[in-house]
Amino acid sequence: MEDVNSSTDVAIEVEVTTGVELPQPPSPAVERRLPEHRPHVKWPGSSDKKLWETVNTDLTVTLLKLRGTLEKKMEKMADIIYEYGAMRFGVQEAKVRKGVPTPPVSRRQQEIKRLIQERRQLRKQWKKASEEEKEGIEALQDDVKTRLASLRRAENLRKRRRKKEQTRTRFYKNPYKFLGSLFTKEKSGTLKTTKKDMEEHLRATNLDSKRHEQLVPISTVENMERKVTCYLKKWLGVPQCLTTISLYGDGVLKLPLTSLTEEFKCAKTRVQMTLHESRDPVVSNNAPNLATGRKWKPEVAVQEATAALRHADIVGHVQQGRGGFGLTPSRPTWNKATAPERRKMVVQEVRHQEEAARQAKAVSLSKQGQWTRWDSVERRKISWKDLWAMEVRRLSFSIRATYDVLPTPVNLHQWYGEDPNCALCSMPANLRHIFTGCKTSLTQGRYTWRHNQVLKSLASAIEDKRTATNSIPPPAAPYPPRTTFVREGARPPKIVSTPSERDQLRLARDWQMLVDVGRQLVFPPEIAVTTLRPDMVLWSHTLKKVFIIELTVPWEDSIDEAYERKHLRYADLAAEARGSGWKTEVRPVEVGCRGFVATSTTKLLRDLGVKGQSLRLAIRAVSEAAEGSSQWLWMKRADPSWGPK
């Protein structure tokens, strides 16, 4: 009765104060449970101060006349204010939301719906059919089932793809909101445990009582690498006596394989620096001991690498190779490097030390370390793509020939005590004898055939460049050099030579070429009269310039000797051509019998304007021609009858 009287008093007070006759509700306003989402009241504007003062006075009087305790008045206050505002000012009409347009039904969905209806009809027909008709209906049902399964599979794939796209879009649009949506009521909740229990659980879960003990010693990793190396050699088809430098080293033939021991050392070194050089003192002061045995320790490796890098800063930039000063890229100094750069530099230094140890071991190998003396050849790098594309026998032959572990008579005599003599000329037959030194093979024309195969590949690349150069319009007349004025105390601008300036064919459009393949080459009589037959002659009457190109396919150790020999052979011819007013260049080029291209060949192609992908393809074609021809000579090493491939 108290609640009813209080609600009646509220209605009476509102009517008396405002002067508006209010309809009496059938039940008290406070007792009625209003909906959770009520329409908004049309409250007056904030600038109408007089009206708001009236509202404040009315509500104050109404609340003061309410009966009951303060808690009950607080519970009823919100409903009273809402009822007062709704009766006096009215409420806003709810906006009718437009319905979300249904997505169009695709043809696949229509077909699925049709097949479902057809399956239902077939089921009804099967129940009413005879035994003979049931067999035909079952065949139709199987057909419908197969088609329906295929269509549903495709539709599910489309839905999953669409869902993934929508999820990706929501993540890119608002990552924080997307991450918040992942934590639903089922995935989140209130933690009902004490701090002591939580710390005890974390301590028991994450604390490792054996954290100071070594996880994997370096000796275990080395044993694992031996097993891996054994299976790798079987997979590549190479003998077990082959040194591991050929698999993991950065030599003349680089394979896409890395040493397990080297990766282990680099990983431990990286973790060592990450923990001990952390900016967080809690991490750096409590870093675990990365013990890896007595053979190798990461902290010692980090100290040695750091000392080497500091010493490199003192020495400065050192030029390597035959290139001019400044051609090799510089590296960041230790003092100016950031923490990530230092970590990367230390790991790279550890790799460099491992490679230096392999190089030192390779130099001490008399047979398998011959490649360390090949200073004038381009290094070959086989990627995983090349490795999978190569034939198994071709890859095995390339590795075994590079490191001289093919079963030659001399090697078989050393391994098993067999006859070391050549089957063709009865001379001691090592790999060099079979590839370049057998007199019978030379007489039969085997080496000439290989030479011609390589010459065809090289001539094809130069011919493509010559044809392309002759087909473009002639160059415009060169402008006279401009005078560059420099202010007092300023430096003159650097003149950067573009790669096109090395293209010696670009200045003329009448280049001609002769190749000593198929028919006997006759040296152009307008240049010089001689009986010499170089492999290629490239000349231009406009420039009065001639290139005398001579190809040799020697043993890789004799590339420098072959270059000097061929250069001296055509020195008199070049002098005679210069006497006739021709600019003459004698360009001996070499391609090793095992497929290693000399730097003289690469330099010739670049000087003639072959660059970029064309240069890489040309070098690869020449290398494959030499290697493939030598492989055929190897297969025919004991066959007295010669026939080209």
Give a brief description.
This protein has helices at residues 2-18, 49-64, 70-89, 107-128, 131-173, 175-182, 195-206, 218-236, 245-248, 260-276, 281-285, 298-315, 339-363, 384-389, 392-402, 409-416, 431-437, 439-444, 446-471, 559-569, 571-579, 599-607, 612-635, and strands at 253-254, 380-381, 511-515, 536-540, 545-552, 583-590. It is mainly alpha-helical. It folds into four domains: 2-89, no CATH class; 109-175; 218-317 and 333-378, no CATH class; 446-472 and 501-635, no CATH class.
What's the arrangement of strands in the largest beta sheet?
3-4-5-6
Strand content: under 5%
Cα(first) to Cα(last) distance is: 116 Å
Query: Approximately how much helix is present in the residues?
Result: 40-55%
The count of domains is 4
Low-pLDDT parts are 1-35
Report the principal-axis shape: elongated
Largest sheet: 4 strands, mixed
Order of helices and strands: HHHHHHHHHEHHHHEHHHHHHEEEHHEHH
Describe the oligomeric state of these chains in a short phrase. single chain
Number-wise, the strands total 6
Tally of helical segments: 23
Based on secondary structure, the structural category is mainly alpha
- The overall pLDDT average reads 86
Rg over alpha carbons: 44 Å
